[in-house]
Amino acid sequence: xxxxxxxxxxxxxxxxxxxxxxxxxxxxxxxxxxxxxxxxxxxxxxxxxxxxxxxxxxxxxxxxxxxxxxxxxxxxxxxxxxxxxxxxxxxxxxxxxxxxxxxxxxxxxxxxxxxxxxxxxxxxxxxxxxxxxxxxxxxxxxxxxxxxxxxxxxxxxxxxxxxxxxxxxxxxxxxxxxxxxxxxxxxx
Amino acid sequence: xxxxxxxxxxxxxxxxxxxxxxxxxxxxxxxxxxxxxxxxxxxxxxxxxxxxxxxxxxxxxxxxxxxxxxxxxxxxxxxxxx
Lengths: 188, 82
Description:
The complex is a heterodimer. Chain A is an all-alpha fold. Chain A has helices spanning 12-28, 31-47, 58-77, 120-131, 135-146, 151-158, 162-183. Chain A starts with 11 loop residues before the first helix and ends in a 5-residue tail after the last helix. The mean pLDDT of chain A is 91. Chain B is mainly α. Chain B has helices at residues 2-6, 10-21, 27-39, 41-56, 70-81. The N and C termini of chain B lie far apart (75 Å). The mean pLDDT of chain B is 93. Chains A and B meet through helix 1, helix 2, helix 4, helix 5 and helix 7 of A and helix 2, helix 4 and helix 5 of B.
């Protein structure tokens, strides 16, 4: 069954390096870390190439290894003390915990919510907005929305409580939504 | 009394809408959220827009322009060949 024909380790760098790099940069932001992760992906795959059984395509197999490297990177990077410090919510809510009457409260968006976004501009702005998140917020966002991981698994990876997880998800959403509204839809 | 029981702030409502997305809200919280959304457009927009962002976030790889330098690619090839 194994389709060994499409398994060509000598061609991996030519065929996949830049795509894996894009995949990684969307998740870890730092170019140096991203390059290291791609390199480690190839190295691990190379060492394990005898065990490749053809169940997944060569491409999917490499992506799976890369994804594991990224999650490992998050695991090593976590700094629990820095999770829930200042009340970032104050940027958006007043002392009675309702939306501040300024440009940060949500406005109506003139979009079709059921349609997949095909706008390059959206993704360019989203990447920039993600850069403004704290590392741990961005890691939560990546695991939840890009990797569809369960919250229990995310908490375990980052060594955080579920209460902290919800605070982090909430802050990611507040920051990203507001940043996109301002810079993608230009609603001020 | 009932008003006090069912009334929540926008801070709480936006927090709860994330939990609801993962099916982690209680019955009481669901009712609180629903009532809040009937009177607060901002929180309704928040829930809709943030889930919209979340479901689309993973599809952007084709638009990433970053690439590795020729030197880095060469280094990786050499590393695997050795």
